[in-house]
Structures are given as structure tokens and as C-alpha cells.
Amino acid sequence: MALPKHFDRLDAAHLPAGQSVHLAIGMFDGVHRGHRLVVESAIRSAAASGGLAGVLTFWPHPSHLFKPDNPVAMILNSRMKLAELDKLRIDFVIEESFTTKFASIESHEFVAMLKSRVPGLASIHTGENWRFGKGRQGDVNLLVSLAEQAGIIAESLECLFIDGERVSSTRIRNALRSGRIEEANRLLGYCYETWGTVQEGKRVGRTIGVPTLNIPFDGELNPKRGVYCVYVSRENGEERLPAVANFGIRPTVNSLEEPLLEVHVLGECPFSYGDSLRIEWAKFLRPERKFEGVEKLKEQIQIDIGEAKAFFRDSMNG
Fold this sequence. Notes:
The protein is of the alpha/beta class and 318 residues long. It has 10 helices and 14 strands. It has a 6-stranded parallel sheet. Strand 11 (226-234) and strand 12 (241-248) form a beta hairpin. Helix 7 (169-177) runs antiparallel to helix 8 (181-188).
């Protein structure tokens, strides 16, 4: 099946007529393992009725509207979130703009609004803690009641627990900020990713024998600054190679204003300036720190490379 189509608003005109529609609804920041259970519920309902499985999500996060001075930092940007959703067996994704107008819809009118825009709507699937409508006054109990009145099935999925704690985007954000990348990946169900285009740098890495790909960080949430084991590939996933990366401001050499991702491929590097790359963050090695001089930095980089090679060797051996 072709990749799901993306729509920027909820509108029946986008969808084939005469087919039932089964919607998973939520912010889905990170598209983590708990979110996937909600999407899979919609997929099962669609398969049982021969209908379409879709996702209704939103951008930006509501906090940009209600707390513009301190909005929630997203795990994935919009393009990356849509790409993660594309990997699932869904037919379409709607990314509704979260505007003042949308936020003003009364909770008791929400289901009727959905039904009017998608007459074929047959089922709605959410997490058990999902809230909706003006002031977030609607909960799943109201959703079930309103859906029943409209002849729609509403299913709320129980929260997923891993290691005794609920899987949530907040928990993942905290793990990323603390350098607990392996925990974040376990909760996500895949390696945390960032995308970026290689830019020409000052060739500092090349002068000390460790050439790097310099990739500006394009994300709202900054992981902990430091050195990581990563996989680097082209944006389509081709030529996936092990590498070691530093995320930070380079305090020893020339301190930067904004964090930069410097990636050193462990082997021959096929990438160059202007390439759009995907970085999968696999393991945190150490925090970024300022060294007494370049020689001390070079020594530590070789230690980092050795640890990274050992990590990838152990990963290959199971």
C-alpha cells in the first residue's frame, strides 16, 4: 500500500466517499509505544469493516497558544512526526492547525463537528487521559456518551506502563534532557531521531584527525549535551552507518551560541556538504566538557571512538 496521504484539515472532501472512517486522535508527540496502541486500535476497527484507518493530530502544541512564553518542547518536529506515522499501516494523516478558532469548540459540540466534517466517521480512538474541547473540559466519559448519541463507537486505550511507570511524552522528554537516551528509545519503540543538512564548518575536526559532519540541530527539545553513539543515514534510511557524535557548543575549541551536532562516521564516510541526513541516537557516552587544551580533547575523542566501536560491536553480537 502506498504511504498515507497528509491533509492539513479535517474535511470529507479529501477522503473516498462510501467508506467508513476510523480515527485515532491525539497530539502523538514522539509517536511512542503508547500512541501506537491507539493507532493500532483504529487500524483493527478499519480492517473489521473494510474501512479507512486514519490519524487526526495537531500542530502546533496547544501550549503555543495558551503559554506562548513557555510552550512544551516537541520531541519530533511536524515533518518527522508525519514520517513516523507513515511507518504505520494507516491510510491517511490529518494534521489540523491548532488555532484559537479550533480551541474554542465547546466539548459537547466536538463529536458533532467531527461527524459533520467526516460523514463516514464510524469510530474514534484515543488514550484514556485524552481531553478535548474548549478549556479541555471534555474527557473520555463525555466522548463515549457523545459518540453513542451520534452513532459512533468511541474506544479509549489504557495507558501503557513500562518499568512500573506510565509511558508518556513528558517522561520521554525528561529522559532525553537527562541523557537517558536508551530509556527514551525503549519508550519510543525506536531510536530517537533528528534530521538535518550537512553544512560547511571550520574543519576543526579534520585538523585533529577526526573529520566530522556538521549538522545544525533542528528541534524544539535539546537533549543533554554530550557525546553519543549514533547511526547516520540518508533521510530515506539508505547507507546507514555507525558513528560517534558530539552535541554541544564546543567549549574547548570555539564556543558556539547554538548547539551543533558533529558526527564522525566510524569508517569511510560517503556523505558531504548539502546532504540531508537522519541521525539515530543510540547511546549516551559522556557529558560535554571543556578540556585544558586541544591535545587533551584529542585524547578524549580517541577514547570516545573506542567506546563507540565497542558499543556497536556488542550490538552486532546480540
